[in-house]
C-alpha cells in the first residue's frame, strides 16, 4: 500500500500525541514469525474503513469531542499517502448504514465527494454487529493485501448483544495471512472483551487515543503493506529509524539480503544474492517495539529495471470486444519462471477467461471472451503466476454490437475466472490432436524421403536485391524468427521491428506489420516453429540457399531473406489496417455491414446510424473521405473524394453520391499501378 514515497516518508515522522494504550497479541521475535506464507501472494492493496457515524462523533449526546471531520480528513490522508488499489468505505450506527467501493480513489472527484457527503447523525453504536457485517463479505485472499480500520468513539450498545467481539473478528473468513485490522478507539477505552478478542485473533490490534486527538492512520497502519522494490540502494519503509529488521524466508522468496540491519532515515538498503525474476516476493519484518504491538510485516515485490519479466508477445491485439468476441493474448515467461498453475484473478462478471500454461513451457496463452461487458466498460484482470507474481492484463473494453456467445458447460460455473481444463471422463480427447499431428508429420517425413530419393532438384535463389516499396513504406530484406518465437522485420538499414502475431490461426505479415508490399505472405504458429501457409508469386522468401514454399516449417532462431519482385503493390496513400488484403480492393454490402475484400483477405465494418467514414473507421488513410449512410436498411454512398473511384465492374465511371450500394463494387485507389 506504500507507493507515494515523499508524502509517506514525511508522515512516518508524525507520532500520534497522547498515545495512551495499545493492545495486540503477544509479539514473537523468532524466525518463524517472519516466514513468507505459502500459496498465492497478494499483488494489489485494499483498505477498508469501518467508520462510526453516530451523533457522538459530532459531539452530540454522550459525545466528548467533535472529531468526525478530523477522522474523515485522516482517512483521506491515508488514502493519498498509501494509494491503495481498492478502498471499501463502510459507515455504521445501528448497523451498517452504507457501503461504497472505489478503485484507486486517491484524489478522484468521486472519492472526495463521498467523503464530503458523510454525516454523523446516527443514534446508536451497534459496533460488533456492524464489524461482523463489514468483514464477512471481504474476499480476495491471494489477490489483495487488506488493511482494515475500525474507527469509533464509543462502545457497543446493541441491546440484543447477539454478536460478541470474537464472532465479529472471526467473520473475516476470507482473510489472507498478511491482512491486518486496527481498532482505533477515539477518546474512549477498549472494553475488556474486545481487548481479549484482539489478542486472540492473530491479525488484529487496538489503539486508544485521548479525547479530541486526530488519528494518524498512516502511523497506525504500519503493521502491513506492499512495497515495490525499484531501487535497492534506498528503499523507503514504513518503520521508524533504528527499527531492527529481518527478511522472511519461504520456498518462493526472492534471493534478497539486508545490507543494513536497521532502518536509517526511513530507508533500508538491500542486496541481491542472485538472479531475481521480475515480481519475485520477499517479506520484510520489523522487530517488536514493546507494549505488545504486533511486529510489522511488509510484503516486497522486486521489480528492478532490467530484471526478467513476463513479456506480452502480441501487445497490438484488438482488445475492444463486442459481445461474443474474444481476444487471445500470448505471454513468454522469463527463464526459470514456472507457469503451470497460472490463473486469472479478479476478472469481472461479463468477461470469461481461459488460461493455457503447459508444464515445462514458458508460454502462456490467455483467451478473454466478452460474455456481457457493457459498452465502454474497461476492465483489467490480473494474471497470477505460481509463487504469487501478478501481472495486470492490458485493458479490455466492451464494444457495441456482437452476439450472445455459446458458453460451454465447463465455463458456466464461474464466468469471471474460468481456467481451461479437460472435461472429466474425456481426458483421452486432449491427446487426439497430438496423435493426428504425429501422423501428419510422419506422412510428411515419408514424402520428403521419397522426394530426396528421386533426386528432386532444389531451385536456386536468384540474388534479387531488396527493392523499395511505395513512398512512405519501409523496404524489408529479412524476417527474423527468434528463439522466443517472436517475429521481426529486418529493414535494409538494419532496423529490426517486432510484429505481434496471434497464437492460433494463420496471419498475414503485411496486414499485421502494415507493410503493403508484404501483403499475402502468411504464416501460422506450429508445434515445431512457424509454418508458411501462403507466399504470393511476386515475393521470394529464402532460408539459406533455398526458397521457402507454402507448407514449410521455419524453426526458431532463423533469419529469412525477402525479395519483392513488384515493389508498387500498394498506392502511395497507406492502406493502414487493410495492408494485408492486397490489391485490387472491392467493396460489397450485406445488410448494414460493408465488406472490403482483397486477394488475401477481407475486413467487415458494421455501419452505425449517421455518416460513417470508411477510412477513419478501418484506420485506412487511402479510403479516408469515403462516407456511407444507412437509410431504411439501405446503404447509400454519401460522399466520395475525387481521387477515389467506386464503380461497378465493367463500367468506366464512378457511381455518384446518393446511389444505393449493391453487389460487388471496385475501388480505384489514387496512385494504384497494379492494374
Automatic annotation (TrEMBL):
Q: Which UniProt keywords apply?
A: Signal
Cleavable signal peptide: 1-20
Q: Where is the VWFA domain?
A: 46-189
- The reply to whether Signal figures as a keyword in the UniProt entry is yes
Tell me which Pfam families the record gives: VWA_2 (PF13519)
Q: Does the keyword Signal apply?
A: yes
Q: What protein name does the entry list?
A: VWA domain-containing protein
Organism taxonomic ancestry: Bacteria, Thermotogati, Deinococcota, Deinococci, Deinococcales
